[in-house]
Design a protein that fits this description.
OB fold (Dihydrolipoamide Acetyltransferase, E2P); 4 domains; DUF4503
Length: 669
């Protein structure tokens, strides 16, 4: 807020007002009685209650001091007493928990508003209000009623009607005896109430209008019709678990402890006016369900009810969410414009991108979300646009969402030991046919960074640990020369049923994968191919150790019964065939970087009962170092001058002072 501006002054005033109200209520509770000063106190008896535009409206009868001292049951309604319309804010109404026949004391500074063409005054500024219990019978009735939640009628008012923006032909001229405003139009589709349990209530097509009319706490009697643009998972803070069957609504029950991974199923929805909202549903015990929900729900119409607002977020607070929204903007079909005629010729797509978004969540124990899986795909749905990696790399955008189909060549967990394993970043090195067939200034493989906030399904993690996989990266983030999988990015083993290729070359790889050879343009945290001549071995840093061939335990002990065998405490068994893990550093001379010192780290595993040495003309470093470890008579001098390559390496660092490149020999998936 601007210092000294109207908004800052209003904010301070509201804070002081809230503090004054809280202090007054605390004082009333502490005194355990009604304030003695009755000057200016307005005493009313509630006759009827309803809610309108998040304000609770109470039709009341004003009472005199003498009548007010009677119990609510004994107070006789006098037709001569004035009728008032008292407005309570949502917070005040929640504090009072008032019902018809309750007596309310309203303390200054309340205000009376006299409206034209009406005889019923309106009472406002009712923050300092107190419900009065004047008898034991009233207290007993209060305790009984306090257990049951009162259902309050809500009058849904269209913003277009409020500002008289609808066409005259479209106006609703239904006026009831109590001047109740007509509800939103009924559901307009071909489905009957058997298919849609929520179809019995009013259906709206505007998220903003629903929020304005129903309020932040939630809506129950009304629902809004939206299109599901994306289905994904987010890490859950407070879990909800539910059972989903076909077209049945989602019903959630809170849980205390959830087994990892604790993730929440989320929907990015869009209404007929183009406004977006993120709906956070129940927690999933398995992340493998995300793909099936995406296939079944994306592009379908969805009916939301029983929602409550978690947050109203803006572009500056949620860059990741709005980068996804921007990838879906502008809409592919014209959208409605608030306040204008809804004829097709009045619709337009020439609208600015959304600047805010409501984060919605479900309320426990109620009907919340219904997806019509049998309905046709909405014209408003935008499937992910698939591009080749070469096209994505040439795009100079910043923080833009992209989708592509790529082969995973190598996986590497970032080694930050201070960070837990489940929070570390993963590097996936991928390629596709557009990169493999590229000729100039395009890398053969690129790194995709998978952050801890990107939820990976168990199916994906198991598949990557087994072998090289062809993955579909949906809504990854591209910017500043990096591709990052963040929140709301989805990785799939199968391509979605609906996606637009946009003319991209999505042919699968047929021949062997090629990597860029090490040269002056090679950067750190990349993979490359290396060929060169062995010029030295760092014997001072060379070491090897045995590990268990079953569990990978590197702390083996001598077997108590047989000191010539090794024993694994984790397996509680003798290790007959341990795996030997070794680490060495070798210096190479590379023609492509003749002025640099090339240091290659070799860290590999060798089965101790199998030794096969390949003595071809250009063996790999792994083979050469295996000779050094196992053949005691093999001299280091005998491997110097040997030509090696092509080696697949991960580049740890590239420095100019000193001019050195540190690599690690790797095995591609």
């Amino acid at each position: 807020l601007c210092r000294g501006g109207l908004a800052e002054r209003l904010c301070r005033l509201q804070n002081r007002e809230r503090s004054a109200i809280s202090f007054w209520r605390h004082q009333c509770i502490s005194d355990a009685n009604i304030p003695s000063d009755k000057s200016g106190v307005l005493i009313v008896k509630i006759l009827e209650i309803f809610e309108e535009c998040t304000i609770q409206v109470a039709i009341c009868q004003q009472l005199e001091q003498s009548t007010a001292m009677c119990s609510p049951e004994d107070a006789v309604i006098n037709s001569e007493e004035p009728i008032l319309k008292v407005l309570f804010t949502r917070e005040t109404a929640a504090h009072l928990k008032s019902r018809p026949q309750d007596v309310i004391h309203i303390y200054p500074p309340w205000q009376k508003l006299l409206l034209r063409n009406t005889d019923v005054p309106v009472i406002m500024n009712t923050y300092f209000s107190q419900k009065v219990l004047l008898s034991e019978h009233s207290e007993a009735r209060e305790k009984t009623y306090g257990l049951a939640k009162m259902l309050i009628r809500k009058n849904i008012i269209s913003l277009a009607q409020t500002f008289r923006l609808d066409d005259l032909d479209d106006e609703l001229h239904q006026e009831s005896s109590d001047n109740q405003v007509a509800c939103a139009p009924q559901i307009r589709n071909n489905c009957d109430s058997k298919q849609h349990p929520l179809a019995l209530s009013a259906v709206n097509d505007s998220l903003l209008e629903m929020v304005e009319s129903q309020g932040a706490v939630g809506w129950r009697e009304a629902q809004v019709r939206v299109v599901i643009q994306r289905v994904y998972c987010l890490p859950a803070r407070q879990g909800y678990r539910s059972h989903i069957q076909g077209n049945n609504p989602l019903c959630a029950t809170p849980i205390v402890n959830t087994d990892p991974p604790n993730v929440r199923l989320c929907l990015l929805v869009q209404d007929a006016y183009g406004m977006f909202s993120e709906v956070q549903l129940q927690s999933l015990s398995s992340t493998d369900d995300t793909e099936q929900y995406g296939r079944r729900w994306e592009g379908k119409f969805c009916y939301l009810a029983g929602m409550k607002i978690l947050q109203r977020t803006t572009r500056g607070r949620a860059l990741g969410l709005f980068s996804l929204i921007d990838s879906l903007w502008p809409p592919v079909v014209p959208v409605k414009v608030p306040g204008q005629s809804q004829d097709s010729e009045m619709m337009t797509t020439n609208l600015p991108p959304p600047s805010f978004c409501y984060i919605l969540t479900i309320q426990s124990g109620e009907v919340h979300v219904e997806v019509d899986e049998e309905e046709q795909i909405s014209d408003l749905y935008q499937p992910p646009a698939v591009h080749g990696l070469k096209e994505i790399l040439r795009n100079g955008g910043c923080n833009e969402r992209c989708s592509f189909w790529a082969q995973v060549l190598y996986l590497r967990l970032q080694t930050k030991h201070s960070v837990p394993i489940n929070q570390r970043e993963i590097l996936l090195f991928v390629t596709d046919s557009t990169l493999q067939n590229a000729v100039h200034m395009t890398p053969k493989a690129v790194a995709v960074s998978v952050t801890a906030s990107c939820v990976l399904s168990t199916e994906i993690t198991e598949a990557l640990s087994a072998a090289s996989q062809l993955l579909f990266f949906k809504d990854a983030l591209w910017g500043n020369g990096r591709i990052i999988c963040v929140e709301r990015t989805v990785l799939l083993l199968q391509k979605p049923l609906l996606c637009s290729a946009a003319g991209a070359d999505l042919s699968e790889l047929t021949g062997p994968v090629r990597l860029d050879e090490l040269d002056s343009t090679t950067q750190a945290n990349s993979i490359c191919a290396l060929r060169g001549t062995v010029v030295g071995v760092n014997e001072s840093t060379a070491f090897s150790w045995p590990i268990c061939n079953r569990c990978g335990n590197g702390k083996l002990e001598l077997c108590p019964q047989d000191r010539e065998l090794l024993y694994c405490k984790q397996c509680s068994e003798v290790v007959i065939t341990p795996v030997l893990k070794m680490q060495l550093e070798v210096f190479l001379s590379c023609p492509s970087r003749s002025q640099s010192t090339i240091k290659v780290k070799v860290c590999n595993e060798i089965s101790s009962f199998v030794l096969y040495v390949d003595t071809t003309e250009c063996p790999g470093l792994f083979v050469l170092l295996t000779m050094l470890l196992f053949l005691q008579t093999y001299e280091v001098q005998s491997v110097l001058g040997k030509e090696v390559g092509l080696l697949n390496c991960y580049v740890h660092s590239v420095t100019s002072h000193p001019n050195c490149v540190v690599l690690e020999e790797i095995v591609l998936l």
